[in-house]
């Protein structure tokens, strides 16, 4: 079990000042150089992951490894298992369909998203100390493949099996005992948080949907400007002067603006719509954490109850001086230990979540601020280009119409 | 999650307007009143066309009080006559120095026609612009005629009382305001039904062969069944108004008796209806047997002046058909042998032009739709963020949330503002690019003019060939009769009758040739005029389109520049 009582060191990552003095601990990661490998259905993209660090736990100041998407998934899953209560940074979607197309833009967007993913982990005070992270950043490809296969293999680890068993058990006992109602926390603050998270997802999803449509609209407007420009040029070819030249100029400008619109469409996609999608994914990750907390809470409650029952039973046995006392005492101590462990686990989750929420809100304000800024800059730039392009036609049009 | 696109959109529209208005009102933004039709338009270009080209809505006046266009004084959307006066047009050059330049310019599309058309026939511009009345405000004694079609009403067909509940039809009030002396009076109204328009159009076509007569609105039988009654009537009203305005814009047709009578004569329209004309078919049919037997007069010189129409002169139709076929026998020659190469070239050029205008107007439609969609989606996105803002504010626990909510609010309001600008831009764009659509109609008129010429030529050729065959018959008869000693009384009589026919036909041929020459002349003048006007109209269109684009692009740029400034503290990494 990963020890989590270490003090988080103030490690700077690549998102902050990369040129921190060498005495300062730093861990800087970048995901670069996407390369398409393999053929057909088995095609995939590999990335170079470059780690620069002065931390003692790492093998040297710089390490470069090759990783693929499923390796990132492995890392995310491991962190999710081990650091319950922490909002694990989300990954871009698996997208089996897009794989076949693998356009340059898709590849770039994925690379950027993976880069952000790793960097968020590297910057997180607890997550950055994870052994799995070190494995991910340093292990050679063969070792990595082995780890990955283990995780996604059909045979689940024993821990998972126990968990599954317990889940089934509790469901059965609930049914038998006739208490179907779920065991849930009912603190007002937590209720509010849950409600907030669930509602937030809906709102964000809607905003993201419109943002995506807006990207399409840019592309459509670009296309129609192109077609319009061409048509107008052809019309100009039928006409004498000065109309012919005027149409030709108009058409040329229209075609030029079409290119700018396509460019802006891509910018909006990368710098605005993608951050919104990321926001949605983050909220979904929080939902997963909420589910984990729910499970932990249930365990804590059930074990506490079971412990109580065992205690009562033990007391009874002690009173009757039964010879089963010894056995019962052992059982009781075991259950009590488990129960205390479950409670600790639950409380750790609660504490972590408290801190995480603050981080999350601050992070999101910053990231959305950047997204708004980028969007506004892009739109202003586009609008100014449009104005400039059309304005340049006016002197000639003026001159022509007074002929 | 969402239902069909349409349902979604319609719900969105009504509540979207409310939301937009509600939200902006919180800002103390005066821009909350019911504004122009832009909001009501759905992405359907056609309905956008009809609502936006509505003559009741003048071009939008843009008079920003200060640098922020959204805080313009309430007169922003009020109709106002004064803006129709030109802005200091000569200052266009100086616009480069003062920002914001075109944001100040009034976006009425047809302000500067006087500059462009100069001294030309003032009324020659077809009047699709809403309220521009006088073409040349600078000239004092400007001819002035303005037509309005309004007030559709249902009326009962006057049948004999034997048949109860006769069919109904719609009449429209046609109001003319003019200072032309030919019309007694400066303002008058009549009521006409669609059938009267058809009559007018038919009579004009007969009287003005070779002219580019604006095409009348379609009968639209299918549409009248399929569309909602109100929508159809409104569509028709708009079309009628456009048509009549084009007629009076035509320098020759505006003086026609037919038009005058149509506009002024009260009660029943005193023009021969097409059914009256068709009844001449009966006369024609009566004449037919006599003509078939070679008796009776040939084509009278009066009738020769008209093309052979179905039902009017069956025999003439047969003859001309035969002629056109015989013309064709000469190999791959076109049915009407047109020697005038210049004309043929011109015709081909006109055809090419028509194709390109069709293409351009289609792409213009797509462009308008794309602009419309951009505005709509921008607005929808803005509203989604407004909802998010409200949500965050209500649920805020941390200051970071409140800060984000504030950023979001600025962003969202700007998106909504930008969306409105897109839609305003679009309604103006529609008005400008509408010129292309109008020219489609005019190209049809050109085709009509060319067709008049072709049919007149066919008449001439038919008569020529008839003359030659009559002459040949006369020769044969004379030859045969001279063989008979002492004269052949019956043959001599026949020869004389034939000579009579030849004389009549000769007269008709001369008339037909004169008619043909006249039509050629009309063609030429009209094409000249059309080319001139088209040049002016297209340049005007381009200018208006471009000025609009510049103005609104500047406004949109301003909106987003402000947001960029407000969020400049985020992410010191440059893009």
Treating each run of at least 4 consecutive H or I residues as one helix, how many helices of chain B? 13
Helix share bin of chain A? 55-70%
The DSSP helix count of chain A reads 10
How many individual β-strands of chain B?
3
What is the top-level CATH class of the largest domain in chain A? Mainly Alpha
Distance separating the two termini of chain B: 35 Å
Distance between the termini of chain A: 87 Å
Superfamily at the CATH H level of the largest domain in chain A? Answer: Arfaptin homology (AH) domain/BAR domain
Topology pattern of chain B, helix = H, strand = E: HHHEEEHHHHHHHHHH
Largest interface: A-B, 71 and 74 residues
What's a quick, concise take on this entry?
Chain A is built from ten helices and three strands, in the order βββαααααααααα. Chain A is mostly helical and 403 residues long. In chain A, helix 8 (243-319) packs antiparallel against helix 9.
Account of the protein in words:
The complex is a heterodimer of chains A (403) and B (575). With 403 residues, chain A is mainly alpha-helical. Chain A folds into two domains: 27-139, Phox-like domain (PX Domain, 2-Layer Sandwich); 188-401, Substrate Binding Domain Of Dnak, Chain:A, Domain 2. Helices cover 70% and strands 7% of the residues of chain A. Chain A has a three-stranded antiparallel beta sheet with strand order 1-2-3. In chain A, β2 and β3 form a beta hairpin. In chain A, α7 (188-238) packs antiparallel against α8 and α8 runs antiparallel to α9. Chain B is mainly alpha-helical. Chain B has 13 helices and three strands; from the N terminus they run αααβββαααααααααα. Chain B has helices at 5-26, 45-52, 113-117, 194-207, 221-226, 229-249, 257-264, 274-292, 301-304, 314-329, 341-395, 399-483, 489-566, and strands spanning 145-156, 168-178, 187-193. In chain B, strands 1-2-3 form a three-stranded antiparallel beta sheet. In chain B, 35% of the residues are buried. The interface between A and B is large, with 71 and 74 residues.
């Amino acid at each position: 079990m990963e020890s989590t009582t270490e003090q988080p060191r103030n490690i700077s990552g690549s998102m902050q000042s990369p040129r921190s003095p060498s005495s300062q601990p730093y861990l800087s990661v970048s995901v670069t150089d996407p390369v398409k490998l393999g053929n057909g259905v088995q095609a995939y993209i590999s990335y170079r992951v470059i780690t620069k660090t002065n931390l003692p736990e790492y093998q040297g100041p710089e390490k470069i490894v090759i990783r693929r998407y499923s390796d990132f998934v492995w890392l995310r899953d491991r962190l999710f298992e081990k650091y319950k209560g922490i909002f694990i940074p989300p990954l871009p979607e698996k997208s089996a369909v897009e794989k076949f197309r693998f356009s340059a833009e898709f590849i770039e967007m994925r690379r950027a998203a993976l880069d952000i993913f790793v960097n968020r982990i590297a910057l997180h005070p607890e997550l950055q100390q994870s052994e799995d992270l070190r494995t991910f950043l340093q292990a050679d490809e063969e070792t990595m493949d082995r780890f990955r296969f283990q995780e996604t293999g059909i045979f689940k680890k024993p821990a998972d099996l126990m968990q599954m068993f317990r889940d089934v058990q509790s469901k059965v006992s609930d049914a038998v005992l006739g208490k179907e109602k779920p065991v849930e926390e009912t603190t007002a603050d937590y209720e509010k948080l849950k409600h907030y998270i669930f509602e937030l997802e809906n709102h964000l999803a809607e905003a993201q949907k419109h943002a995506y449509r807006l990207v399409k609209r840019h592309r459509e407007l670009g296309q129609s400007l192109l077609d319009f420009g061409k048509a107008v040029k052809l019309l100009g070819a039928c006409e004498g002067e000065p109309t012919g030249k005027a149409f030709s100029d108009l058409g040329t400008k229209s075609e030029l603006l079409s290119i700018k619109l396509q460019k802006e469409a891509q910018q909006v996609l990368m710098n605005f719509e993608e951050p919104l999608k990321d926001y949605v994914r983050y909220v979904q990750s929080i939902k997963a954490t909420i589910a984990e907390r729910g499970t932990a809470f249930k365990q804590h409650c059930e074990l506490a109850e079971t412990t109580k029952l065992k205690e009562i039973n033990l007391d009874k046995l002690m009173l009757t001086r039964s010879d089963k006392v010894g056995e019962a005492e052992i059982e009781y101590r075991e259950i009590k230990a488990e129960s205390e462990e479950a409670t600790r686990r639950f409380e750790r989750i609660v504490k972590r979540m408290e801190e995480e929420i603050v981080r999350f809100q601050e992070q999101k304000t910053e990231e959305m601020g950047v997204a708004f800024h980028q969007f506004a800059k892009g739109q202003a730039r586009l609008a100014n280009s449009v104005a400039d392009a059309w304005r340049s036609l006016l002197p000639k049009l003026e001159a022509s119409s007074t002929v | 999650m969402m239902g069909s696109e349409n349902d979604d959109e319609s719900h969105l529209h009504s509540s979207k307007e409310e939301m937009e208005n509600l939200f902006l009102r919180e800002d103390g933004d005066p821009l909350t009143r019911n504004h122009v039709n832009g909001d009501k338009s759905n992405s359907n270009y056609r309905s956008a066309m009809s609502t936006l080209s509505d003559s009741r809505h003048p071009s939008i006046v843009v008079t920003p009080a200060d640098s922020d266009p959204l805080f313009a004084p309430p007169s922003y959307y009020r109709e106002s006559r004064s803006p129709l006066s030109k802005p200091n047009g000569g200052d266009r050059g100086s616009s480069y120095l003062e920002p914001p330049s075109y944001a100040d310019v009034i976006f009425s599309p047809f302000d500067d026609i006087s500059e462009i058309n100069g001294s030309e026939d003032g009324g020659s511009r077809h009047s699709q612009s809403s309220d521009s009345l006088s073409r040349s405000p600078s000239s004092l004694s400007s001819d002035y005629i303005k037509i309005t079609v309004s007030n559709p009403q249902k009326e009962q067909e006057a049948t004999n009382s034997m048949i109860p509940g006769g069919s109904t039809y719609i009449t429209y009030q046609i109001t003319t305001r003019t200072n032309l002396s030919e019309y007694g009076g400066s303002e008058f109204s009549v009521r006409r039904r669609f059938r009267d328009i058809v009559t007018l159009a038919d009579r004009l076509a007969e009287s003005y062969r070779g002219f580019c007569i604006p095409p009348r609105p379609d009968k639209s039988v299918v549409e009248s069944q399929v569309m909602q009654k109100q929508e159809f009537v409104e569509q028709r009203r708009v079309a009628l108004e456009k048509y009549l305005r084009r007629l009076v814009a035509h320098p020759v047709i505006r003086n026609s008796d037919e038009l005058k009578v149509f506009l002024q004569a009260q009660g029943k329209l005193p023009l021969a209806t097409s059914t009256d004309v068709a009844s001449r078919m009966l006369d024609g049919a009566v004449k037919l047997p006599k003509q078939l037997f070679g008796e009776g007069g040939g084509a009278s010189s009066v009738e020769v002046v008209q093309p052979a129409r179905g039902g009017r002169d069956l025999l003439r139709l047969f003859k001309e058909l035969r002629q056109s076929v015989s013309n064709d026998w000469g190999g791959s020659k076109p049915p009407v042998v047109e020697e005038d190469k210049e004309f043929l070239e011109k015709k081909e050029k006109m055809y090419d032009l028509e194709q390109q205008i069709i293409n351009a107007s289609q792409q213009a439609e797509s462009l308008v739709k794309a602009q419309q969609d951009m505005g709509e989606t921008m607005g929808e996105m803005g509203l989604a963020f407004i909802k998010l803002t409200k949500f965050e504010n209500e649920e805020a626990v941390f200051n970071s949330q409140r800060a984000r909510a504030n950023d979001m609010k600025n962003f969202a309001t700007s998106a909504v503002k930008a969306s409105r600008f897109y839609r305003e831009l679009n309604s103006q764009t529609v008005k400008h690019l509408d010129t292309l659509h109008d020219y489609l109609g005019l190209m049809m008129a050109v085709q009509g003019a060319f067709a008049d010429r072709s049919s007149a030529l066919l008449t001439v050729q038919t008569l020529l060939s008839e003359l030659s065959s009559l002459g040949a018959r006369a020769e044969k008869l004379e030859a045969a009769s001279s063989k008979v000693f002492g004269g052949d009384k019956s043959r001599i009589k026949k020869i004389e009758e034939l000579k009579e026919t030849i004389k009549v036909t000769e007269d008709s041929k001369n008339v037909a040739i004169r008619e043909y020459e006249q039509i050629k002349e009309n063609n030429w003048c009209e094409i000249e005029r059309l080319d001139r006007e088209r040049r002016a109209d297209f340049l005007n269109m381009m200018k208006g389109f471009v000025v609009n684009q510049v103005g609104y692009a500047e406004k949109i740029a301003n909106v987003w520049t402000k947001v960029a400034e407000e969020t400049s503290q985020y992410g010191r990494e440059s893009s």
